[in-house]
Amino acid sequence: MSTASPEVQSTPAEGFGKRPLGKRLVGANTFWIALVLLALIVVFTAMAPNEFATVFTFQTLLIETSVLLVLSVGMTFVIITSGIDLSVGSVLIFAGMVAGKTMEGLSPNGNASTAGWGVIFAGLVAAVVAGTAWGLLNGFLIAVAKIPPLIVTLGTMGAALGAAYLLNNGSDVRSVPRELNTTLGYGTSFGGIPNLVLVAVVITLVCAWLLHTTKFGRYTFAVGSNAEAARRSGIRVTAHLLKIYVLTGFLAGVAGFMSLAYYASTTISAHTTDNLNAIAATVMGGTSLFGGVGSILGTVIGVFIPAVLKKGFNITHVQDFWQMIAVGAVLIAAVWFDQRRRRQRNSR
Amino acid sequence: MSEAILLDAQNLTKYYGSVEALRGASFQARAGEVTALIGDNGAGKSTLVKCLSGAEQPSSGTILLDGEPANLDSPTTARRLGIETVYQDLAVAPELDPAANLFLGRELHRKGILGKLGMLDKAEMRRRAVEEFQRLGVTLQSTDVPIGSLSGGQRQSVAVARSVVWASKVVFMDEPTAALGVVQRERVLDVIKKVRDRGIAVVLISHNMPEVLSVADRIEVLRLGKRVARFKTEDTKLEDLVAAMTGALVQEEAA
């Protein structure tokens, strides 16, 4: 080697090695946010060991976060491409509404309470198709028509909610098959694991695999990191973005069906801030709003921080409005750290 | 030094509306040599490189690759034929690690059913990336950090490496050292020399005359959309280059 810079003097083996595990951990955003979650659990357990650290608390905690987790996993893909999807909450409501109306329509007298699995399956398909259709619309407007994602999804957020209201004249669908409610909604498997949680876990694992080990995931990071570089490398950026928004719509559709199963109602008013909760969870989990960085594990942790705070405050009799303030602070801190890291890097 | 002309562009013209960017420009690059393409601003260097790398199509003229007429209708076609381009603005994905950048758009899949599902063989890509970087003399402290956290010179070396690893015939480098410091520049020039030694035709576009004289084997000068002079570096002085660029010296046989 003819250059004389210091790095050259190290042997090739160490020059190309991976960093030690400890160093990599400390460098990862996910590690710090995981510590925050762990600290919260430890603190609440110490404050109320008999109430907080129980199987029942964790079971309800997991059930209550399942729907949001599925939304947030989709949001993670979108934010990694440096996009945003404000419409997921409305799409969830719309998909639940379409599923509810479909199941009612297939039942005698428009009451789906006693409907069987055939009708339930039709409802699932309807929810997924409805969610995917909104995703396709978002994706087309963002990737092909090149309208900024913030504006597109702000528009479809209102439109999907309006369409959901129109479907049932502004009221909730309340006749949901009892069979669905008792199996997917409240049922458990494998000795006490709620079915709703199982579904969310499977979806999360599949998406983690998709994001972190496949070409689809690699391209997602590449498009978010530098779309121009990705294009020059022969990656079809437009098609990829379209797929990402379709995936998010699809997951919102599934989440809509899960929510319908759990609440046995479309519960429109309960989901109006789901989009912001999903964005907050994703960003808290270390996914960068500037694109190119993020992980599913981080998002899982990000989903649990607000949930654990809320549960903990409830159990320790602190007014849970504090949770909103605490989550806001953590969110801003997370973005601040991300920006600082970027500035340090870019000044090199 | 070899006499085999790998890339031979003859009498290229290119019009943008009524503007004549190339007026019958010719250009030759030889395997295993660095050919510098120089010229004043507006001489048509960028247009010529775009035509030869498939980004633009010439209005008329022939391009021969290995003696065969080549129809470079898109950058993808050019890449398939073994022609790569290093862009001035370093098109890398800063959040991905060096190995991921090297294999961007050309990922290796795992064997078997998992590979069919799109699963990547990260270990193999990393191993091959380390091999390629070592071969090109690119030194990195670590292969698992985002490329954005590397120094400018290392980042540029990776960007250069990414193109040359895949090039089997010709590499175009448009001002690859423009934004770099002295040490970093030396490092990139070393990479260029290593690429040349692998038998690839390197085309270097640069404004930096001392750099051109130190690394190029041949120099071709464009002026007003035409080739006005060709030099062999060993018997060329800086003054000759400047004279050719400004129009004070014209070799009749060069056009």
Name the descriptors:
heterodimer; A: 348 residues; two-stranded antiparallel ribbon; 2 strands; 1% strand; B: 255 residues; six-stranded mixed sheet; 25% strand; globular
The ordered H/E elements of chain A are: HHHHHHHHHEEHHHHHHH
Number of helices, counting only DSSP H or I runs of 4 residues or more of chain B: 9
Q: What is the mean predicted local confidence, pLDDT of chain A?
A: 87
Poorly predicted residue ranges of chain A: 1-15
Main pleated sheet of chain A: 2 strands, antiparallel
Largest sheet entry of chain B: 6 strands, mixed
Strand content of chain A: under 5%
Distance between the termini of chain B: 23 Å
Shape of chain B: globular
Helix share, percent of chain B: 25-40%
Oligomer: heterodimer
Computed CA radius of gyration of chain A, to the nearest angstrom: 22 Å
Gap from first CA to last CA of chain A: 25 Å
Strand content of chain B: 25-35%
Overall number of strands of chain B: 10
Strand order of the largest sheet of chain B: 6-7-8-3-9-10
Folded structure, characterized:
The complex is a heterodimer of chains A (348) and B (255). Helix content of chain A is 73%, strand content 1%. Chain A is mainly alpha-helical. Chain A has a two-stranded antiparallel ribbon. In chain A, β1 and β2 (193-194) form a beta hairpin. In chain A, α5 packs antiparallel against α15 (296-315). Chain A is globular. Chain B has 255 residues and is an alpha/beta fold. Helix content of chain B is 33%, strand content 25%. Chain B contains nine helices and ten strands. Chain B has helices spanning 45-52, 75-80, 98-102, 112-116, 122-135, 152-166, 182-197, 209-215, 238-246, and strands at residues 5-16, 19-30, 34-39, 60-65, 68-69, 83-86, 170-174, 201-205, 218-223, 226-232. In chain B, the strands form two sheets. Chain B has a six-stranded mixed sheet, with helices on both faces. In chain B, a hairpin with a 2-residue loop joins β9 and β10 (226-232). In chain B, α6 packs parallel to α7. Chain B is globular, with a radius of gyration of 19 Å. Chain B starts with a strand and ends in a 9-residue tail after the last helix. The model of chain B has no long low-confidence stretch (mean pLDDT 84). Classes of the chains: A mainly alpha (348), B alpha/beta (255). Chains A and B meet through α11 and α12 of A and α2, α5 and α7 of B.
